[in-house]
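Most newcomers find our protein records easier to grasp once they have seen one. A learned vocabulary of local backbone shapes supplies the integers on the structure line. An example says more than a description, so a record of this kind follows:
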Amino acid sequence: MIYISKFRSNDLNPSKGKQIEFNKGVVDKFFNFTGSEHIVDFECHSVLNPNLKEDIHVEFKLSPSRGDYKIYQNSDGTKDLKDFFLDTLHLESDKNLDDYFAIKKKNSTKYILYYLPKDIIFSNFFSIAANDQILFISEKSDGVKNEESDIPKSRQIIYYGAPGTGKSHKIKEALGEYEDCPADKKVPKVNIFRTTFHPDSDYSTFVGAYKPTKGKRPLYGLFGKDTVRMKDGEDLFEDMITYKFVPQAFLNAYIRAYQTDENVYLIIEEINRGNCAQIFGDLFQLLDRDENGISEYTIKADADLKSFLEEELGEDNPGIKDGELCLPSNLYIYATMNTSDQSLFPIDSAFKRRWDWEYEPIKYKNTDWKIVIDGTEYSWVSLQRKVNDKILSATSSEDKMLGDYFVNPSDGIITDKVLLNKILFYLWNDVCKDGEGDIFRTKEGDKEADITFSDLYGTDKSDKLKAMMNYLQVDVAEYEGGKDMEQENLVDSASKIEVNGKSVKYINVIPYMAIKEYVSLHPEKTTQEILDIWSPFKKYSMRSWVVCNKQERDSMKPEYANYSLEINCTDGQSIWVNKDGWMHNPTKQRDTISEFIDAVNESGLGINITETFI
């Protein structure tokens, strides 16, 4: 894959305080970084000078607040990437900002960079790039554009993360396996093969082997002649057991890939629940791919496999030519791995390095899901956060945390039965079995007590569950933000106010509803981007702020900080919307809500607030 971008001002700024940076979209789609720091090697070239080549050591560091990565000066004092641009190529910010650079990915730690002036034809460059997918970033956008498909271009990816983070869903989405998927985005079912690894999986269940099958043979009469039915003249047969080679998921995908020019996908669920070394055997050697996606090293097929493939593909087919196996460029292998299960069969480093790894984080995005206990509704995301904070504190690991889809209620309602038998059962057996986690405790008034899992099945189980929610400080899910709204903030009974069709009961919740609706409509937006968009609306309030982040909220006095409503953003961070400073009465000095409504409706943000008089 090749990533092309126009230079930004920081890239060519001589100041070392201005860093070259790559935004989260580029990192997720191209670099696939997951840690806070990554050290890679760049082989740097210029299309203008074919003889120019410099090897640059590059240190990427994560900027946690925005999720992007910046390139700082090398800690060992060696030449960095900005030095190559400024000192070797002599680029200048007032002359070369319309030029481009391209980065070709060789593997996760090695890249090739090309300098591309805007006013020449890149014939040399495109001859080099002919076999690569181009990822172009336009000058008007910081986001990655891939018009061809949403499918990742890496040929071997393991999606990993805590249970319930949506790893399998991400693969299904990429392959177009969802309702109302456009026909041009959907991968034909004939090109998708699935298997799930488990402790009993082995080479024969993954690749194939001879197996007994049911067959028939003719019955013979005297002198070796066939026995003939008297009435219909048909030969008589008897059942028998015979043996034939039966291909499994890998071989079925392999054969299909050599029978079509379309991309073929082999999906392995729960890859670490099986012994990968035993299951893949010598196939593991095929996972080393060259820049065209073809196996760098072939392997000899055993006699049974060779005979079967020659029959299926033909002796001269590249898939079995000279009796050797070789992965074609159109065969993609994607796998999922629950990090909570990594102790089953650890994956060795030689196997790991042959895959690209993509972390699927917990996003805390199902903010409208509720847990219902005896009529009281609690926020699922609040429980998720509280429990995950305790798991992280106790284990210093994210492996056993609750993912967004650890449960998946069809109507967004998690019953007390599901809470007990799925969520708490998992926590008791997998997280807290050695007394870790500080989760199974109750609080009633000022009194706290430990409880066991069986305590939650008594006649007073609802009270115990509520006391447990109270101890964990799980938020009660009240529509529009809670019961603490004052009567004076009620919408006049003679009117009806709606935000994108959703009715609002309290005046001072209208900004919260508008911003919450915007967050749900734009899951791609980071917390900081949302803050930047909505902070200017403070001029329509009587107070100094409308929306803030956690750091700003923590610096406020409690009486001000607590008079706000939390919104969970899709990047895992939260913002708070001020409930104070809003009034909706034309007879008062200012009608701040009317000002806010007019400004939002004219902003083009996709939020429509209406007031209808009944």
Observations:
- Confidence is low (pLDDT under 50) at residues 137-149, 478-488.
- The first helix runs from residue 24 to 31.
